[in-house]
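CORE FACILITY INTAKE
Project code: CF-77B
Contact: R.S. (postdoc)
Sample description: multi-component assembly, two entities in total
Requested service: structural model of the whole complex
Turnaround: standard
Below are the sequence entries exactly as provided by the requester. Do not edit them.
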Amino acid sequence: MERNLMKGNEALAEAALRAGCKCFFGYPITPQTEISAYLAKKMQANGGVFLQAESEIAAINMVLGAAATGTRCMTSSSSPGISLKSEGISYIAASDLPCVIINVERGGPGLGGIQPSQSDYWQATKALGHGDFQLLVFAPASVQEMVDMVVKAFDKADEYRMPAMILADGLLGQMMEPVTFPEISSEQMPKPWACDGTKMNREHNIINSLYLQPETLENSNISRYERYKKIKDTETDAEIYLCDDAEIVVTAFGATARVAKSAVNTAREQGIKAGLFRPKTLWPFPVKEINESCKSAKKVLSVEMSMGQMIDDVKLALECRLPVSFFGRVGGVIPKPSEVLEEIKKLGGAD
Amino acid sequence: MLNEIILAGFGGQGILFAGKILAYGGLMDNKEISWLPSYGPEMRGGTANCSVCISDDPIGSPLVLEPNYLIVMNTPSFDKFIGSVQPGGKVFVDSTMVDRTTDRDDIECFYVPASQLAEDNDMTGMANIILLGKFIKETSIISLDTLQKAFEKAIPPKKAPLIDVNMNAINIGGQV
């Protein structure tokens, strides 16, 4: 297959088109604007709708509407813009609608900066809006994974009737790497629930998130969580690197995992038994996989572009059996491999 | 072999494009590559730089901190990056734009009046490619054949005449 050189944002947008995305609603924000720009050029020729909304809030509610018709649809933003979308995302989750949401993270909180960050981990995996709900959260670490994961996100969102998020960052969005586009099946799951016209031969479908009877609302929550349980059992994914005999396991996702991997390689050259655990799904968190990768570990180091967010899930997944320390850079500063190596060396010293 | 390159200068000098051409060269040679630009306000007239990695093995962090090659087209970028070049590294300076030299003796520095050469050859705006021509000559990262293919890939068909213009600029740089 032909290797192309593309920016992460553009490759992701092209993959969304190939995955059958027919509606994109968005509002520009650095560092993800190339997604909008690319789709503005290409969506119409692909028989779809590109619309630059008047705000992020409008865009996510357009996604809700398009998703209700069973159309594959997507929105994209960066950290502050995702916060604006949170009400709509909760409504989409409550309406059991599939869609794909892209967050190319930048430094926060507030308006923050425009350089890469991973400080929306908690938001994405714990509370992207009010109420009990989850999103599928995929964490690419290369331009190729931006492509592969967006295709998967559309499929899994349809399968489980829920929103899926690609949690990327400014580094992955802006960098160019070689990428190949996989063969993508044009077959999609039937959506008998969609509001796409009865053609006078079925009852009306109703998409709704308002349930005034407590028991009815409770039941809708319970049935959603039954689906979540199945997802936790079957949809986790992770890369496990040099962990078989690793005494120090570094945990990192996304762009940070690339930095961590360089540090792990150098540590190995220096005789330190280090390995890397990289979750590719952040929700569901790969609990089984992290326990496998830590079977000979004495210490764990979570490296993130945040003040320490994924570390909570690492500790929970390991049930606090191992000491977990943290190294992070924030505000748009990318950790250096040498800094991570120093942290590994500290742990490799006296017990 | 991991080659880590920083290209830096003012926005508008074609820093990012020159970096892209190197990345396309790596692509044509079936290497692992990454290209990471500075983005944001720098692109609108301030300083611009990009990191390019060309390697036989998968690339870890695409952000180059200690380059073994530096291509630099303005004084602020020269001051910012000259100290970070790895010992044994090579530096390519547009000496029309940069009014100083380095006293480091553990690196090799080539001072090319690229902007002046561009003007003399009626190629205003192509100092970046002239400097790239010197880079190609003094390093063995990419062959001239590969570079030709890189331009063919990077330049859209409707602008195809620019391929020869660029290769001419490369040759001018190579003859310095």
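Facility notes:
- The domain at 2-174 of chain B is CATH 3.40.920.10 (Pyruvate-ferredoxin Oxidoreductase; domain 3).
- Chain B touches chain A through 20 residues (CB under 8 Å).
Invoice: internal transfer
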